[in-house]
Design brief:
Layout lengths: L1 H23 L3 H26 L2 H26 L3
Helix pairs in contact: 1-2, 2-3
Length: 84
């Protein structure tokens, strides 16, 4: 169990690094990529926590979060591309 928690902590550290890029990013594209990376890491962490605590609800929430994250990223990309 400790190995899984350590893995989640590594993912949280990576989220913090991506958060720095999100706040500091010189361009909007950098910020969008950082946000997408954070969302992917959140989904991975939720799935790992579901394994650790043996709760299927974490995986269900991760799937819904991933779908919403994908739609949000598409919306932001269309907005930045000038299509909206």
């Amino acid at each position: 169990m400790n190995m899984w928690i350590l893995t989640v902590l590594v993912l949280v550290g990576l989220m913090l690094l991506a958060m720095v890029r999100l706040l500091k990013g010189p361009t909007s594209a950098d910020r969008v990529v950082a946000l997408d990376a954070i969302n992917t890491l959140v989904v991975a962490a939720m799935i790992l926590l579901g394994v650790v605590f043996q709760q299927v609800i974490f995986v269900d929430v991760a799937i819904v979060y991933a779908l919403l994250s994908f739609v949000g990223t598409l919306f932001i990309a269309k907005y930045l591309g000038g299509e909206l």
